[in-house]
Fold:
Amino acid sequence: MGDKPKIAVFDFDGTLTTQDSFVPFLRWTHGWRRLVIGLMRHSSAVLSYGMKRCSNQTIKEILLTEFYKGWSIERLKTAAADYAHHYLPKLVDPDALERLHWHQRQGHQIILVSATLEIYLQPWMKTLPIDHLLATRLEHQGGSVTGKLSGENCYGPEKVKRLERLLGDLQQYYIYAYGDGQGDRELLEAANEPYYRFFNRGRYLMIR
Structure:
């Protein structure tokens, strides 16, 4: 470890939470009936995504267009803050959160790097607090949501690129990284201590 600054990098969905947070957000803003109708309207794309024939960015933009295109960005920010404060905490894994707090107690810098939407992660992370957030951003023009992403979905190699843009050469740091899926592979490979899918009962599985 030496004297390198220590950084703990966490994925969000499935790592800090017990499940995906995007579909519950759609339900929060639209209700069950509208959610089901919208998903059925794009059932072929949803099925294609489930079979890994459709990228994360493509399916996300399809659903964002279906549910939020034309919304004012301020309306969506208000809904996202409401979700972040009243529902999102219910999805958080207490063991994972305790691990994050352990890093804080050690004085480590905490960075959240996630394909999840920045618009509701930002108000949630301020309650902890977390030092930096690198997440998927929504495009909006003239104050209205377009349904597209602003830049790349923060998934896979994009996570490492975002970290490098924030920190510079990652070799300058001692990095702990926590992830749960294929989208975290490059992030875990870049870490000195990569941990994968294992927070239960205070134990952590290092994969190197």
